[in-house]
Write a structure and sequence with these properties.
The chain is of the alpha/beta class. Helices cover 35% and strands 14% of the residues. It has two domains: 226 residues, Alpha/Beta hydrolase fold, catalytic domain (Rossmann fold); 69 residues, no CATH class.
């Protein structure tokens, strides 16, 4: 049974006001260390069930948990990009490092869930400038929980439908023609209808069947796009090329769920972890397979295992 997560207490404020205002929520703002949590596609603040348990563990380590709203949250991911996410994370990091009250004076860590893992790697793969200090933003570590492949999920689910394959082909063709921002057809999506007593599913279709640019659809669902960082078909050379730039800047912890429903059913997470460790053996990569963990880690025992692994990783950061 999936239980409703415990409520979190903290402070809500803005980390930027231009070009648009974006908020963040922080537990235990007085702590010197900060962990920025980045959710996956269709998610936003507060929807990942293990966050209350994680916040408790972080508090014991003098870390605050940071959740924030980015433009790609909910249905915005279809017209967004990983680099756009990374730039917004940089803005948040700069704010945390330079704000006048309780700034980050200790360690700054990024933790991604699902496609948030791609955001962690993308952020760390190049230098990010703190515009207020003129120095590079230093991130002490990155954590990736449920680093699975969108393209493999597409291949095993939507990709079996001719219409989906045609849409992918059309998207890739638009990108080749220099039209990455072309919007894919959504004429089949029905407008929201009034239901009994004025209730219904609201605008959930904008999240579950969002608008897509050709670029993002191809990047998410095609092979070897910008989003394709964790597929099981990547060889050692591809893994090194993809992850080494990030690992050159910060150690990474990869947390695989033993029962992740978004991972290919014929892929053993234990073998994937070993493959990555072997490919990146000279770099600061740690992996752990979490028993009983599905994609969002609903199971309480799995949540404890995950939080213990995060705590061990954080204690080891220099």
């Amino acid at each position: 049974m999936v239980h409703e997560p415990s409520p979190l207490q903290g402070t809500l404020r803005l980390f930027q006001t231009e070009p648009i205002s974006l908020p963040y929520f922080e537990t235990n703002a007085q702590h010197p260390n900060k962990l920025i949590f980045i959710p996956g596609l269709t998610d936003t603040m507060g929807v990942v069930p293990y966050l209350p348990s994680l916040a408790s563990v972080l508090n014991d380590l003098e870390y605050s948990l940071i959740q924030f709203v980015k433009c790609s949250d909910l249905g915005g991911f279809g017209t967004s990009s990983l680099e756009g996410d990374a730039q917004e994370i940089a803005q948040l990091a700069e704010h945390l490092l330079t704000r006048s009250d309780s700034p980050c004076t200790g360690k700054l860590v990024l933790m991604g869930h699902s496609t948030g893992c791609q955001d962690v790697v993308t952020f760390l793969s190049e230098e990010r400038l703190n515009l207020k200090t003129g120095q590079q933003i230093l991130v002490h570590g990155g954590i990736c929980q449920a680093p699975v492949s969108d393209s493999e999920y597409f291949d095993s689910h939507d990709g079996s439908q001719n219409s989906a394959r045609e849409l992918l082909s059309k998207s890739q063709e638009c990108v080749k023609k220099g039209l990455p921002g072309a919007l894919l057809d959504r004429s089949h999506i029905s407008p929201v209808r009034t239901s009994l007593k004025g209730r219904g599913e609201g605008n959930s279709a904008t999240v579950l069947t969002p608008a897509f640019t050709a670029y993002r659809f191809a990047s998410l669902n095609g092979h070897h796009g910008d989003d394709d960082l964790f597929s099981s078909y990547l060889d050692s050379e591809s893994i090194v090329r993809t992850l080494q730039p990030a690992l050159n800047r910060a150690p990474l912890l990869m947390l695989f769920g033993m029962n992740d429903e978004y991972a290919p059913p014929d892929v053993d997470p234990v073998q994937i972890a070993k493959h990555w460790e072997t490919s990146l053996r000279n770099l600061p990569l740690s992996t752990k397979v979490v028993p009983r963990a599905n994609h969002k880690v609903d199971d309480a025992v799995a949540q404890k295992t995950l939080c213990d692994a995060v705590a061990t990783f954080l204690r080891g950061l220099s």
